[in-house]
Each structure stands twice: as structure tokens, then as C-alpha cells.
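Q: How would the C-alpha cells look for this protein?
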Amino acid sequence: MMAAWSDRVGRTGRFLWSGWSGLAALSLLAALWQFGHEVYGDFILPAPLDTVRAMGTILADPASWDIAVLTSRRAVEGFLVSALAGAALGLAAGYSPATMRAARPLVTVLLGVPPIAWIVLAMIWFGSSDGTVVVTILIASSPLVFVGVAEGVMTRDRSLDDMARAFGAGPVRRLTTLGLRHVAAHLFPALAISLGTAFKVAVMAELLANVGGIGGELARARANLDVAGALGWVMISVAALIAFEYGIVHPVRAEFERWRAAAQPWGVKR
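A: Here is the predicted structure in C-alpha cell form.
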């Protein structure tokens, strides 16, 4: 028990320490942003510090937190539905080559249609409601998870399946002990991309469908030519995305793939 907790604390410490590289990348982005501000001026691109002040002003209003929570809830609901549907269909297609051959053209069609076209159709079908946002996220994000899971299943080492079958492992045991571990390497990157797509599509759908949320506030900022306010809401949306991705998706991945760290030689870091 103590060894497991010590290992978990060690992985958490390494995860937090790796955040320095992320801070360095964000600092580089801020430097480029400041350069753009000095070239184009306040009206086109406010300074990063002014945008942070605008973000602080927005968050000082308690109603703004409700708006951010509303958009986050819609994005996470759409992401969860997309992840479940894409993973289930991807597993089925990965183990059935005929299903995969039939599904590939459909995935190409779904990925080829711009999300804004799905938003327009969803507005006609569901009106100005949460259904418009969630359905648009489902159509835009689930193919990403589907492709990741299906590719993971198809590229598995079948000789390991044969070996497990020779030792008497049934289909369910082979899936949980071998198949899902290999699929996880393809699933979690797809989930991270799908989560980012969910937040982007949620804000876009809110803006076009006029259903409130951060998208509605962006529309208000556009009408008032409030560039700093618009960028402040964008930063709030990105902060919510980062909180969900690095607070839930990556810790779950680290827990699910802790066997990889155990299999690495001492001193080897990813």
C-alpha cells in the first residue's frame, strides 16, 4: 500500500515538474503577442497584460463564473457523449474489418463537413438550446475518438493475443489485459484533441445559436468593439480547457498507463 502511494506521489511530482516546459512555451507565446501588440497597436491587438487585467475584471463579477460554467458544462457533456460513442464504435470497427471498411467513408464525410455547417443544421433541428451545442460537438468530435480507437485495435500485436489464448484467457480477459492497454496509447491523444474540439465548437455554437455562454459574451464584445474583453473571454475558455485536460484526462492516462513507467529502465524519462 505504501509503495503504491509513494509511486503515485512520485508520478504526480514528475507531472507537476514537467509543467515548467509548458510555462516556457506560454511565455514564448506572450512574447510574440507583445511583439504583435507593439506593431499593430491597442485597437487591433491589446497587450497581454491589458488582456489579463480585462480577464480579472470579468472574473470579479460572480455572474461571469456562471457563464464560464455553462459553456464548460456543455463542452464536457458533448465530449463525454463523443468519447463513449466514438470508443464503442471504434472498438467494434477495429475487431471487424468489414465494419471498418464501411465506416471509413462515413468518417471522411463527417470530418470533411465544416463544424459551422453542422451548427446551422442543429439550429434548425433543435433551435436555440443545449441540444444544438451538444449534437454539434458529438458530430465534430466522435470521429476523432473513433479513428484513434479503431487504429489502436487494428495495430495490436496479434501474437500476444495468440499467446494469451494458448494460456486459456477468454475474449474479455484478452480485451481488458492486452487490447485496451494497447488501445490506450491511441485513445488518450484522441481524447485530448476531442476535448479541445469540444470547447472550440461549444463557443462557436453558442455564438451562432445565441444561447448565452462564452460565445454569447464574445458576440457582445464584438458588437462593442471590445477587443480586450473578447480576448479575456477567450483566455477564460482556454483556462477551462486546460483545467479539464490537465486535471482529468492526463491524470487518468497516467494512472491507466502506469505500467509503461514501470517498464522503463531507471533514469529514462518521456
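The chain has a mean pLDDT of 85.

The chain has twelve helices and no strands.

Upvote if useful.
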